[in-house]
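thought: user wants a sequence for this fold. calling inverse folding tool.
action: design(structure=
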């Protein structure tokens, strides 16, 4: 069925869908609550601790029930051939929709320069092959605050433009002041160039989108004039460590079910995830300016997780926000290790906790409030689970030491401080297992429906083995993530903000020192908790053991998951394969090939590596000219001139090792200083220069024999 633009779905029909969704969540939670209350209820009723356990159980199970019902809806949608009310169906097969001017923007912050620009090269070439390149411009929006990164980005930009004919199509902009992080970077772009484009497509530094996907997004926007944001569902790719391969396998296998169910009930009240999405610029500029929250960080001040809020503001203004989970050709890369994933979650946690201010914001749609609430609960649920387990331990201890304790206390029928018949516990256990694991089973069933689909995951046997192994490892990781997120929530509540750090996107594994420092507390806590519960009640200890195992083994588990050789071993065994590995699209093959060639280039000697970007900008006439041409000219005061004059002389006489990053950045930002340094470095006799610069000149004579396109990490 083809959609009529701006009509999508009748309000009454959408209401029925949402009523069905929330009713399903309510029924599942109510049934589990009944089982739990029946388990806790005794002849004397329930005391305060037992009521606390029940309340926590309701809060936690309701969140699990949301995912369960979404998966069931997704299974229903996929089995009937898809949802007729998808944004992608508004374009008829073969229909050629005229496109409009679109900016493809990529904000970066101290990222791997090779990965950024080789990824952009692949995207540019892919768009070029669609014959629609005239509608797209590309922007690298840099907030990098390291001298090496800055210079390498400039050199890489010029060389990329030369090689693909990108001058006038690919632009590079470096902000002088990194205000409000990524959201401020995008806002600065919109103030300068937003009126020149109808749409912008936002990418992350590790994003890859095919030209066909970009063209399809613009066409959908043109076909649906009331659409403000269309969010694709990026698939995780290029994982090499065991951890990243497990994550991309679960994303690829389970994702379609949840995406279909999510789109079924939310429709045009969707969410924005911050990247791999297209945005209509005019309403975004008019309605999506982020407010400052009351107070100071971490709860107040600038909003960190801007995407959910921008989607809510867009819907408040009457524009539709869609999830286009069925668009092919949208990819991203995930963190390579468990610790890197936790570092990312640390800043996401603070951003989501800030959303508590916005739950009652005037004019927000109910669905957007629900999105904000679920984002908050994604992190708050961890300390709630921990609290539930700790209260259970205390409750068992109180009952065991009381005179009324059951004489047969060390039996498996003695749980949470109560003796009960096994038949009373089985319904709760069975229903909980059903809610937790049925979505995974249904995803495997969908992949089994035809041999070709299963073959894309390595075959039916490897698919089942991978799903079972992923479930087992996820169960071990669950308590570790619970401890991470509990710590993050507590730190946020105590007022400890988070600094914006570069996300590691490569494949290097953790070292033992980092793992011990990060997981040492988890291990000690797990051992103390395990010994205490064993002393209190052996039955309770075995009931708690799935949680304890993950905590006690967190250090070796984190190390094992970070290893490249384990990831490659599972790949050779055809485990955790995804369709993007068994039959990779051309763009992903091209990216891997380009990066493999790029990383083989000669690197500078170790003495020069730390300041190689500054070396290039001062020593190389080509790089110096590029850098100066990109600087904004300004007239410094007399005091500033004296300051820069002193810095310049010090740099040549002492070398950059005696300079702070701030001093290096100050020189790089001053065009007059960069011109003077280049001229004087080549004019002065070698004895007037620091030994570092004499070595740099000798090394330069060697490096000029190699291609200037070499990018150094």
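)
observation: tool returned 713 residues.
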């Amino acid at each position: 069925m083809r959609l009529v633009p701006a009509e999508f779905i009748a309000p009454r029909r959408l209401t029925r869908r949402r009523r069905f969704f929330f009713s399903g969540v309510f029924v599942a939670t109510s049934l589990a609550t009944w089982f739990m209350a029946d388990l806790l209820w005794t002849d004397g009723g329930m005391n305060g601790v037992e009521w606390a356990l029940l309340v926590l159980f309701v809060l936690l199970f309701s969140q699990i029930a949301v995912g369960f019902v979404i998966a069931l809806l997704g299974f229903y949608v996929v089995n009937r051939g898809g949802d007729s009310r998808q944004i992608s169906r508004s374009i008829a097969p073969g229909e050629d929709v005229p496109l409009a001017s679109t900016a493809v923007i990529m904000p970066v912050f101290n990222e791997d320069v090779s990965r950024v620009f080789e990824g952009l090269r692949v995207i540019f070439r892919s768009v070029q092959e669609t014959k629609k390149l005239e509608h797209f411009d590309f922007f690298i929006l840099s907030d990098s605050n390291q001298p090496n990164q800055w210079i390498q980005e400039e050199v890489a930009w010029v060389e990329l433009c030369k090689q693909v004919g990108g001058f006038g199509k690919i632009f590079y902009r470096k902000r002088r002041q990194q205000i409000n992080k990524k959201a401020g970077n995008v806002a600065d772009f919109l103030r300068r160039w937003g009126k020149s484009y109808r749409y912008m497509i936002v990418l992350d530094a590790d994003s890859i989108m095919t030209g066909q996907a970009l063209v399809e997004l613009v066409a959908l926007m043109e076909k649906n004039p009331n659409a403000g944001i269309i969010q694709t569902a990026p698939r995780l790719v290029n994982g090499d460590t065991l951890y990243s391969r497990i994550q991309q396998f679960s994303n690829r296998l389970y994702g379609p079910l949840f995406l279909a169910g999510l789109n079924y009930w939310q429709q045009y009240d969707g969410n924005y995830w911050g990247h791999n999405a297209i945005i209509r610029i005019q309403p975004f500029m008019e309605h999506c300016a982020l407010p400052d929250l009351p107070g100071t960080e971490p709860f107040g001040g600038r909003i960190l997780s801007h995407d959910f809020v921008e989607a809510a503001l867009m819907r408040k203004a009457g524009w539709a926000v869609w999830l286009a989970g069925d668009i092919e050709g949208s990819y991203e890369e995930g963190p390579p290790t468990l610790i890197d994933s936790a570092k990312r979650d640390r800043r996401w946690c603070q951003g989501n906790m800030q959303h508590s201010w916005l739950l009652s914001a005037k004019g927000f749609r109910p669905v957007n409030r629900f999105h904000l609430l679920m984002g908050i609960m994604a992190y708050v649920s961890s300390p709630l689970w921990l609290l539930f387990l700790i209260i259970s331990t205390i409750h068992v201890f109180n009952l065991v030491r009381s005179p009324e304790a059951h004489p047969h206390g060390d039996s498996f029928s003695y749980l949470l401080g109560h003796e009960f018949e096994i038949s009373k516990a089985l319904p709760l256990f069975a229903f909980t297992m059903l809610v937790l694991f049925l979505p995974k089973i249904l995803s495997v069933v969908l992949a089994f429906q035809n041999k070709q689909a299963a073959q894309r995951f390595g075959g039916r046997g490897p698919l089942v083995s991978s799903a079972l192994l992923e479930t087992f490892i996820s169960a071990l990781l669950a308590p570790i993530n619970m401890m991470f997120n509990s710590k993050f929530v507590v730190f946020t509540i105590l007022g400890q903000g988070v600094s914006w750090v570069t996300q590691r996107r490569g494949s290097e594994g953790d070292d033992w020192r980092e793992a011990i420092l990060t997981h040492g507390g988890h291990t000690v806590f797990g051992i103390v908790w395990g010994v205490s519960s064993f002393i209190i009640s052996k039955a309770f200890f075995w009931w708690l053991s799935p949680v304890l195992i993950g905590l006690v083994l967190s250090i070796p588990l984190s190390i094992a998951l970070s290893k490249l050789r384990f990831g490659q071993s599972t790949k050779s065994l055809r485990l955790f394969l995804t369709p993007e590995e068994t039959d990779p699209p051309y763009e992903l093959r091209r990216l891997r090939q380009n990066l493999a060639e790029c990383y083989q280039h000669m690197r500078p000697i170790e003495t020069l590596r730390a300041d190689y970007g500054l070396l290039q900008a001062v020593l190389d006439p080509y790089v110096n000219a590029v850098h100066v041409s990109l600087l904004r000219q300004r007239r410094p005061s007399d005091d500033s001139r004296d300051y820069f004059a002193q810095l310049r002389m010090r740099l040549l006489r002492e070398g950059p090792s005696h300079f702070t990053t701030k001093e290096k950045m100050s020189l790089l930002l001053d065009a007059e200083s960069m011109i003077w340094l280049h001229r004087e470095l080549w004019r002065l006799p070698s004895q007037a220069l620091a030994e570092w610069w004499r070595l740099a000149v000798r090394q330069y004579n060697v490096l000029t024999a190699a291609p200037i396109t070499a990018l150094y990490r």
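thought: summarizing for user.
answer: Here is the designed sequence. Confidence is low (pLDDT under 50) at residues 1-7, 405-420, 705-713.
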